[in-house]
Amino acid sequence: MQIARLANVREHWLVGPIEVVSLGPVNLKGRSFLTLKDFNSDEIKHLLWVAGDLKHRIKHEKQYLPLLQGKSIAMIFEKRSTRTRMSTETGFSLLGGHPCFLTSQDIHLGVNESSTDTARVLSGLSDIVLARVYSHTTLEELVKDASIPIINGLSDLYHPIQILADFLTLQEHYGSLSGLTVSWIGDGNNVLHSFMMTAAKLGVHLRVATPKGYDPDSSIIQEAQRLSKQHGTQFLLTSDPVEAARGSNVLVTDTWVSMGQEEEKKQRIKDFLGYQITMQTGSVAKPDWTFLHCLPRKQEEVDDQVFYSPRSLVFPEAENRKWTIMVN
């Protein structure tokens, strides 16, 4: 948490460009960021506040903030990504740091060098590692042997940096997150898992519709139910997209066919029939409903009428990947 740790606070008011938040003790120094399951409400709110403050200062006030001068980040990409690479490289550079991009041709985790050795080598050459990997286990192995923080740029289980960007976008649009209802209509995947580990901590109700056989991980469902009860929010699981969308402020979906699932494409499109988000889906939502998608998007997931409408927040959402990655 290179930037967030510079703004550690202890029970005082933070007044930012988005909203006023009252936070308890927050200490993020030296911590890795594998899943938002490991962060409490105040810590997540702190991350969002710092991201919003950096955006305000750098984008709108044109301030130069070389807070990471002399620091470097190693970026391991087993999976390609426009937004994760660009947001990390531009964000880290804006703060005066040096990003180092490593593809699967540059670094073969666990193949020609063990994860243990890689973690130790990168700990001596950089100040932080962002890894976008196939298996969440790879991240856990890196954390075990690294002496520097590890950031999850995406794994098969979680995508926490995306969820920070999503909630910053909603916070900017609605002014506050508490009391919002978010409806996920799609696959029970890593992005949904991160929503499930975060929503209740921010006072957000979560309604989830997935086709039968595409449910979220059972252990994550149990944790989401526990968090919902703890924070007094609603959590619904259904296979009916209309039921999930009813009374919602935000409709969210994602790709139905993730990288590595290409051979399943035909079957998946068949199984997700009726899950495309359209204006008809939104007709049962609240009048002010908006739409999110982490991209890249396919038309079978959401039609053009919604995707390119004023209700769509997908492009501010994509930009906010840069401002939220800065706080990690």
From TrEMBL:
Domain Aspartate/ornithine carbamoyltransferase Asp/Orn-binding: 179-326
Pfam families documented for this protein: OTCace, OTCace_N
Enzyme superclass (EC): transferase
Location of the protein in the cell: Mitochondrion matrix
Subunit structure, as described in the record: Homotrimer.
GO molecular function, one term: amino acid binding
SUPFAM superfamilies assigned: Aspartate/ornithine carbamoyltransferase
InterPro entries in the record: Asp/Orn_carbamoyltranf_P-bd, Asp/Orn_carbamoylTrfase, Asp/Orn_carbamoylTrfase_sf, Asp_carbamoyltransf_Asp/Orn-bd, Orn/put_carbamltrans
Aspartate/ornithine carbamoyltransferase carbamoyl-P binding domain ranges (all copies): 31-172
PANTHER family reported in the protein's UniProt record: ORNITHINE CARBAMOYLTRANSFERASE, MITOCHONDRIAL, ORNITHINE TRANSCARBAMYLASE, MITOCHONDRIAL
Name of encoding gene: OTC
Keyword Mitochondrion in annotation: yes
Coiled-coil segments on the chain, per record: none
Any GO BP annotation: L-arginine biosynthetic process via ornithine
Domain of life where this protein originates: Eukaryota
Name this polypeptide is given: ornithine carbamoyltransferase
Family per similarity comment: Belongs to the aspartate/ornithine carbamoyltransferase superfamily. OTCase family.
